[in-house]
Write a structure and sequence with these properties.
- Homododecamer.
- Keywords: Amino-acid biosynthesis, Aromatic amino acid biosynthesis, Lyase.
- It catalyses: 3-dehydroquinate = 3-dehydroshikimate + H2O.
- One of its GO terms (biological process) is chorismate biosynthetic process.
- InterPro entries: DHquinase_II, DHquinase_II_sf.
- With 151 residues, this protein is of the alpha/beta class.
- The chain has a single domain, classed as Rossmann fold (3-Layer(aba) Sandwich), CATH 3.40.50.9100.
- It has five helices and five strands.
- Strands 2-1-3-4-5 form a five-stranded parallel beta sheet, with helices on both faces.
- Strand 3, helix 4 and strand 4 form a beta-alpha-beta unit.
- The longest helix is centred in the middle third of the chain and has 16 residues.
- The two termini are 16 Å apart.
- The mean pLDDT is 93.
């Protein structure tokens, strides 16, 4: 079965606890359940991962890129958290691995602090979903499927 990765960066393990007025009350486990259900509807196997470590995210991006090249995966939904605004390493990994990525953010980063506006991920992403809460993950999965021509 073809797979899709959903990669989550730093502090997303604190969903439901950290700033619920910004990120809502859904936990990361709730997000995984939503994504697993949606992936199933789309005929995809889900690889749902979270790390607070940049290097681990880079490793998963490279792994997913290799699986795309092998025809085993359609790409990744990536919520890089704060690494969105700081990680040239993630930018380079996505580009180097030729990984189709949909960038997702739970909150509207453009309505928040200015330091959250620039993204190192957006220039190498196929699309960006911002400000739809955790349902943005579902939109990102659907967009990735559309991009892959599987819709």
């Amino acid at each position: 079965m073809t797979s899709v990765y959903v990669l989550n960066g730093p502090n997303l393990n604190l969903l439901g606890l950290r700033r619920p007025e910004v990120y809502g009350t859904a936990t990361l486990a709730d997000v995984e359940d939503l994504c697993r259900e949606e992936a199933g509807k789309l005929g995809l196997e889900l690889e749902f991962l979270q790390s607070n470590h940049e290097g681990q995210l880079v490793d998963w991006v490279q792994e997913a890129g290799a699986r795309v090249a092998a025809g085993e995966c359609i790409g990744a939904v990536l919520n890089a958290g704060a690494y969105t605004h700081t990680s040239i390493a993630l930018h380079d990994a996505i580009e180097g691995a030729s990984l189709p990525v949909i960038e997702v953010h739970i909150s509207n980063v453009y309505a928040r602090e200015e330091f959250r506006h620039p993204s190192f991920i957006s220039p190498v992403a196929r699309g960006v979903v911002v400000g739809f809460g955790v349902r943005g993950y579902l939109l990102a999965l659907q967009g990735l499927v559309d991009h892959a021509g599987r819709a």
